[in-house]
Design goal:
Layout lengths: L2 H22 L3 H8 L4 H8 L10 H8 L3 H8 L18 H12 L2 H21 L2
Length: about 130
């Protein structure tokens, strides 16, 4: 890939990152914290195309942006020119569901397991109350 092609790829991916972040109602700081960046400026550099998404973080970005991992990998590496934002399940998340997923991803694995256990308990309670 030529330097010009790499620059165009970074701009295209950056524009998608910004568009998707805004669509999900997330701030630069939200992404920076969730992905472990030191500052929001790091995310801004990616969104403006100054830097490319590091390969080791592509799946983390895909998860946070709620897009299919493989599709985002192909898009971020230049294999494809378009990115489909539909989640793998084809379902759209409500704002509350997105907030829950974002909060869950920011937790340590220990607390993620505990939250999942509680959710399953609530699910069983709700199922038991159904006629």
């Amino acid at each position: 890939m030529s330097p010009g092609e790499r620059a165009e790829l970074r701009r295209r991916v950056g524009a998608f990152l910004r568009s998707r972040r805004e669509e999900l109602g997330l701030s630069l700081g939200d992404l920076a914290r969730a992905l472990g960046y030191v500052s929001a400026n790091s995310v801004w550099n990616l969104e403006t195309g100054r830097e490319g998404v590091p390969a080791k973080r592509i799946y983390a970005w895909a998860d946070l942006l709620q897009v299919p991992r493989d599709a985002f990998w192909r898009f971020a590496t230049g294999e494809t020119k378009r990115m489909d934002t539909q989640p793998d399940t084809g379902e759209r998340l409500t704002p509350n569901e997105r907030a829950l997923v974002t909060a869950y991803r920011e937790l340590s694995p220990k607390y993620q397991r505990r939250l999942l256990e509680h959710a399953r308990e609530y699910q069983q309670l709700a199922a038991a109350k159904r006629p």
